[in-house]
Design a protein that fits this description.
Number of strands: 22
Number of helices: 18
Distance between the termini: 42 Å
Low-confidence stretches: 270-290, 293-334
Largest sheet: 7 strands, mixed
Structural class: alpha/beta
Radius of gyration: 23 Å
Helix content: 25-40%
Strand content: 15-25%
Length: 536
């Protein structure tokens, strides 16, 4: 193999230093010792479903179209999949240049595109997604035994660490089998549990070391099978402790008379704590089918007896968890106060997007902001959000920008109108309507801007600096090691550790059929991990 790209989701230098010091990741430690290394600045937003597509296409979300876990059609939404990534992936460009690839467990790659080689899709896909070639998952399972997209930490309950380790090790086994079968020029192997363990068990040293130990075993297996000339290790973002506040953006917008609320099962679900617990048990959300109970709860909500108020009473009594176990999800939803998309002037529709969307007439199905009022409304948002201070008197956001100052390309219109960057990513954003602007972060650890990059091999200058490496630079760098031209649409440039590839105009990207979408299982797992638990 010419080049192997290893992806460690949510990994940064402090994390690696701790596992190296513990001696649980000798293969990775050896790679880093012989590599040029440095921080890898992620994009905005620095979350898996948008960041990995940016890394593997080399373009910003304004050019590939994915800003978060959800894709929106007016006020309706679905979980994203590969058909929403409207730019050429690395392996697709390589295929056009007569190079073969094996891609294993990379997020947002289902349904898989046909290429010379194989693709086993990863995170943000159904459990049995369409891979390439047809039947590849069955082939892998017949060869190595059990293989699943999601692991023990992606489902409700306390995961057994032996099972967690075994799950991570299957990535290496599957990759080795596919490398032997397809003999590719390029390989891409990603590990998701390096991120998941910090969402689920951030202070559990044993769990963290078991995950990285198992990932290290899989990396050793992959290196042995591929015998690559070049190895590049990357992460899509970093991770760390959140020491700030929970910022309930839609509550702020409501105080400023920009958000309207509704109850009775209509509007944007705020996924109150009771509903969140139900989702964490794997119960699908889905479209409400109101029965007698739901209609009764809905009637109560309309007169102010909402799920949030009920929980506020039950929580101090220790009864909220009991109610969560017995309350049907549709009943909880019917009693939840929600953001009313249609009657709001602006709203945060998805905290992962890091922004606020204006309900613009002519763009949104029932927009209420006249186009002539758009700039004035956005200026009001920019000014108010820039001036917003937390309970400690500190600015909530380090940056508040119009979207065109952050994104560029044909899909900027899909972005929030105003982009917000939490101060040092210490503040946790929440779109729920909970009655107060601020609270304690729901997750003690979450994403940070700086990830990691390391590169070594025959086509790599290990003495060169990686001080200014950016996520967009990875795709051109990989192509440089393979001597393949980068697309003239790419926003990044090859890092100084490799010879820059020539630039070429590739055929225009053609949209793919989205009829294979199957999101219910995916939404449940994302809810369990907290990604869809606050404001979707």
């Amino acid at each position: 193999m010419r080049t192997l790209l290893l992806g460690l989701d949510g990994t940064c230098r402090p994390v690696l230093d701790s596992v190296f010091e513990a001696g649980v990741a000798p293969a990775l430690e050896s790679l880093f010792e012989e590599s040029a290394t440095g921080p890898l600045t992620s994009q905005l937003p620095p979350w898996t479903p948008s960041a990995w597509p940016s890394l593997y296409t080399g373009v910003n979300p304004g050019k590939h179209g994915v800003y978060g876990f959800l894709t929106f059609d007016g006020y309706d939404y679905d979980v994203v999949d590969a058909t929403d990534v409207r730019a050429h992936a690395l392996w697709e460009l390589l295929d056009r240049q007569g190079r073969s690839s094996v891609v294993v467990n990379v997020p947002v790659t289902a349904p898989a595109a046909p290429i010379d080689g194989a693709i086993l899709p990863g995170y943000v896909s159904p459990e049995d997604p369409p891979g390439h070639p047809d039947g590849i998952f069955d082939d892998v399972r017949e060869e190595i035994g059990a293989y699943s997209v999601y692991g023990p930490m992606d489902t409700p309950g306390e995961a057994d660490l032996d099972d967690v380790a075994a799950h991570s090790e299957t990535r290496g086994d599957a990759f080795a089998y596919l490398v032997d079968r397809f003999d590719p020029d390029f390989g891409f192997l990603e590990f998701q549990q390096t991120d998941t363990v910090f969402h689920r068990r951030p202070t559990d040293t044993e769990a963290i070391e078991r995950v990285f130990g198992a990932v290290d075993d899989a990396v050793a297996t992959a290196l042995s099978a591929a015998d690559p000339d070049n190895v590049i290790v990357v992460s899509d973002h970093g991770i760390g402790e959140y020491r700030g506040h929970e910022i309930r953006v839609n509550e702020c917008l409501r105080d400023w008379d920009l958000v309207s609320a509704t109850a009775g099962g209509e509007g944007m679900p705020s996924w109150d704590a009771i509903a969140r617990r139900r989702l964490q048990r794997g119960e699908s959300g889905g479209t409400p089918d109101p029965g007698l109970l739901e209609r009764g709860v809905s009637s109560l909500a309309r007169v102010g007896v909402t799920s949030q108020r009920i929980e506020a009473v039950l929580e101090p009594l220790g009864l909220a968890e009991v109610v969560a176990r017995i309350a049907p999800t549709d009943a909880v939803r019917a009693g939840t106060e929600q953001v009313d998309f249609r009657n709001s002037r602006a709203y945060m529709r998805d905290r992962i997007e890091l922004g606020v969307r204006i309900n613009l007439a002519g763009r949104e199905p029932e927009g209420v902001v006249d186009p002539d009022e758009y700039e004035a409304t956005r200026t009001e948002l920019l000014d108010r959000l820039r001036d917003l201070n937390d309970p400690d008197g500190e600015p909530v956001f380090e940056t508040v920008l119009p979207r065109e100052d952050v994104f560029e390309g044909p899909y900027v219109e899909d972005a929030p109108d105003v982009v917000v960057v939490p101060r040092e990513f210490e503040n946790f954003l929440n779109g729920s309507l909970l009655g107060e602007r601020f609270g304690t972060p729901r997750e003690s650890w979450n994403h940070k801007r700086d990830g990691i990059v390391a590169a070594t091999g025959a086509d790599v200058d290990e003495t060169a600096s990686l001080a200014d490496a950016h996520l967009f630079d990875i795709a051109p760098t990989v192509l440089g090691t393979l001597g393949v031209p980068q697309s003239d649409l790419m926003d990044g440039a090859a890092l100084s550790v490799v010879e820059p590839p020539p630039v070429e105009t590739y055929p225009e990207y053609e949209d793919r059929d989205a009829s294979t979408r199957d999101d219910h299982d995916v939404a449940d797992r994302l809810a369990h991990l907290g990604y869809l638990s606050e404001d979707q």
